[in-house]
Amino acid sequence: FLAIPHFIVLAFLAVGSVFAAMIAWFAILFTGQYPRSLFDYVVGVMRWGLRVSAYAYLLVTDQYPPFSLK
Any idea what DSSP says for residue 62? Predict the structure, then answer.
């Protein structure tokens, strides 16, 4: 039950992450470089999702995951 707020926020962030990845694809296509801010955002969402999954499903840790992309 404690992970439900994380899943709600992550659902919105995941949609943003998909759009960021699409924008990054075009940026890579035209400039040859992945924009650092988009990279940090996508990786942050993935890290947060992994921390929440480890807390909620895998029961690897008892530490409540922070609401942070860091």
Answer: -
Would you call 34 helix, strand, or coil by DSSP?
A: coil
Q: Exposure of 31 by Cβ count < 10 A (0-12 exposed, 13-18 middle, 19+ buried)?
A: exposed
Are 6 and 65 in contact, with CB atoms under 8 Å apart?
A: yes
Structure-model confidence comparison of residues 59 and 10, the more confident one:
10
CA dihedral (54, 55, 56, 60) positive or negative: positive
N- to C-terminal Cα distance for the chain?
23
* Helix, strand or coil, per DSSP, at residue 58: coil
